[in-house]
Amino acid sequence: EAGVAQSPRYKIIEKRQSVAFWCNPISGHATLYWYQQILGQGPKLLIQFQNNGVVDDSQLPKDRFSAERLKGVDSTLKIQPAKLEDSAVYLCASSSYRGGGSNQPQHFGDGTRLSIL
Amino acid sequence: GENVEQHPSTLSVQEGDSAVIKCTYSDSASNYFPWYKQELGKGPQLIIDIRSNVGEKKDQRIAVTLNKTAKHFSLHITETQPEDSAVYFCAASPDGGATNKLIFGTGTLLAVQP
């Protein structure tokens, strides 16, 4: 079974520029998550989709971050404009969880390492 | 909201020794507790998980214990090997399965000395 695919692996931009990350979840997984992992910290949830609907975006800085999951499969996360504090690894995860019941494991991709100059 | 604390932040052991990492959580509704291993440049990899209706779970050299009363859970690695060296994260799912979200601890850097 193929894992969660993310691209690009690395991105370097200057502050105030825009950047986009792409994620392809494990086939058949209904739930997709974007996390931000700052160096030396645990992953922090930014947004959770179930199919193509948003379940939780309470921690997403909506003035600069946006995400979409058209057709309920692939997803993109965008930052515009980027700030220095956005330097982090952006992780995508997916799960077979379909709502209202028993927890299901989340499986992570290898992330995109973003550096803001 | 849920808060997960993890200790120690770094742990160094000799090859063959055991390693124990401890986590506490604040939300009594939390019911699912996975552990992830993260190697340099990689994403977190699920190594074991436990649900709130179970007190202990083992998988070869890895075991996890859960004390719901004290809101503690721990990862035990026996017969450590150099390839166990990585950062380990605990996590808790705070809403009883309603959304499957996870709150992560701050991580433990485990170094296994050959």
Strand content of chain A: over 45%
Over all CA atoms, what is the radius of gyration of chain A?
A: 14 Å
Helix content of chain B: under 10%
DSSP summary: helix tally of chain A: 0
What's the number of extended β-strand segments of chain A?
A: 11
The CA-CA distance between the termini of chain A, in Å, is 37 Å
One letter per element, helices H and strands E, the order of chain A comes to EEEEEEEEEEE
Unreliable parts of chain A: none
- Derived structural class of chain B: mainly beta
User: Approximately what portion of the residues of chain B adopt beta-strand conformation?
Assistant: over 45%
Q: Globular, elongated, flat, extended or rod-shaped: what is the shape of chain A? A: globular
Instruction: Give the integer mean of the pLDDT values of chain B.
Output: 95
Q: How many angstroms separate the termini of chain B?
A: 41 Å
Q: Quickly count the helices of chain B.
A: 0
Secondary-structure content class of chain A: mainly beta
Evaluate the radius of gyration of chain B. Answer: 14 Å
Largest interface: A-B, 29 and 28 residues
Stretches of chain B where pLDDT falls below 50 for ≥5 residues? Answer: none
Extended strand count of chain B: 11
